[in-house]
């Protein structure tokens, strides 16, 4: 009997919304970065995105930012994009209880609850972008326009440089 292909919650959500996506899997190394994953998948690091979760000082709200794996989040630009005075990255230990995702497997789709989500504006330069499928070792490739059918997003210049 053939082994049943594993689907993540993100994939099930995309299937439920009838969104086309490409799935990628990889063997996870202990210290893999997003750039390592882009290289392993033979993908343009500008097209592979990572999901970061932050906390705003003014409203005491959480925010999600999705940026290319070869970029660094510009905290001032990100705060401005969401109308905050300042934001800070959440502690790694807080990620799983807050989002339902482990560090290295965080996806903008399927978090425990919705958070304001901002994607770096460069995503609009690509027909598709690649990001975590919600589990370490799994990535999905989705058109930004299709991602907008699943979660509410905005686009802004939120990376350094």
Estimate the global geometry from the Cα principal axes: globular
Helix fraction, binned, reads 10-25%
Cα distance spanning the termini: 52 Å
Provide a count of the helices.
5
The total beta strand count reads 8
Structural class based on helices, strands and sheet pairing = alpha/beta
**Any low-confidence stretches, pLDDT <50, length ≥5?**
none
Largest sheet: 5 strands, mixed
How would you sum up this structure, described in words?
By secondary structure, the chain is α/β, with parallel strands linked by helices. It is built from 5 helices and 8 strands. The strands form 2 sheets. A 5-stranded mixed β-sheet has the order 4-2-3-5-8, covered by helices on one side. Strands 1-7-6 form a 3-stranded antiparallel β-sheet. The protein is globular and about 45 Å long.
In short:
The chain is α/β, with parallel strands linked by helices and 161 residues long.
